[in-house]
């Protein structure tokens, strides 16, 4: 089923904090994704206090812009609370959707509860292909999705689990765990592309080891608030 053929409205929620460099590309892509059915898609940007040109760029695009408390989980929860759609798609500002992404989300959520896309890390490092493959394989095996994979969910299910837990890190893992208790995610093989900037700035292997350690500690019960300082 395509977006135009569905009675559903899809709300795309994008948390933003100083993303001016990549926003022009994202805004152009979102305009193209809405295509011939703009009334079936609602784009909501939630700014967490940007000090660059992010808010000016979004305002000029005509998409909805609201302010929220800083923190990705809080910003996405604010966006969800204002959304009018019965389907929600959470998109990071440095992530690009595949073609016809909205149609694919609609097709899944017409019968399923939630899901995510496969991911490809964008950048020159050869290791990015390996990292992406392991991220997608681990997600498919565990039923846990990361925010980079553009999680989408029925609004009713999102409300039932209480939205994203109010924590500064691992909010995507926490939400996935809650949703997985109700139903396994639909894992689309269509790939979103996310920026590899963080990996390149910190060093690929250093970032891999850091993320593995943080996930292990989180699994062992270390509070996300303590892990956030190590991540930063």
Fold and architecture overview:
The chain has 232 residues and is of the alpha/beta class. The chain has a single domain (10-197), classed as Spore Coat Polysaccharide Biosynthesis Protein SpsA, Chain A (Alpha-Beta Complex). It has ten helices and eight strands. Strands 3-2-1-4-7-6-8-5 form an eight-stranded mixed sheet, with helices on both faces. The mean pLDDT is 90.
Poorly predicted runs? none
Task: Quote the distance from N terminus to C terminus.
Answer: 42 Å
How many domains make up the coordinates? 1
In order across it, which strands form the biggest sheet? Answer: 3-2-1-4-7-6-8-5
CATH superfamily: Spore Coat Polysaccharide Biosynthesis Protein SpsA, Chain A
Q: Structural class, please?
A: alpha/beta
The helicity comes to 40-55%
In N-to-C order, the SSE pattern is EHEHEHEEHEHEHHEHHH
Main location: membrane
Protein name: RSAM/selenodomain-associated transferase 2
GO molecular function: glycosyltransferase activity
Organism: Zhongshania antarctica
């Amino acid at each position: 089923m395509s977006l135009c053929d569905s009675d559903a409205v899809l709300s795309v929620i994008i948390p933003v904090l100083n993303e001016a460099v990549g926003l022009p590309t994202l805004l152009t892509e979102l305009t193209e994704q809405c295509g011939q059915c703009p009334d079936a898609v609602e784009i909501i940007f939630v700014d967490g206090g940007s000090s660059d040109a992010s808010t000016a760029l979004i305002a000029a695009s005509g998409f909805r812009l609201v302010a929220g408390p800083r923190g990705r989980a809080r910003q996405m929860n604010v966006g969800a609370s204002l959304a009018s759609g019965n389907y929600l798609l959470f998109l990071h500002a440095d992530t690009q959707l595949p073609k016809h992404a909205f149609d694919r989300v609609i097709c899944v959520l017409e019968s399923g509860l939630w899901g995510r896309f496969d991911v490809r890390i964008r950048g020159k490092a050869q290791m990015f292909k390996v990292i992406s493959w392991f991220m997608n394989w681990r997600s498919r095996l565990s039923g846990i999705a990361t925010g980079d994979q553009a999680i989408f969910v029925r609004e009713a299910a999102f409300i039932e689990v209480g939205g994203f837990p109010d924590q500064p890190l691992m909010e995507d893992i926490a939400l996935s765990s809650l949703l997985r208790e109700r139903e396994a995610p639909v894992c689309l093989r269509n790939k979103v592309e996310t920026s590899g900037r963080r990996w390149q700035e910190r060093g690929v292997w250093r970032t891999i080891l850091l993320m593995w350690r943080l996930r292990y500690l989180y699994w062992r019960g270390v509070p996300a608030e303590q892990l956030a300082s190590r991540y930063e």
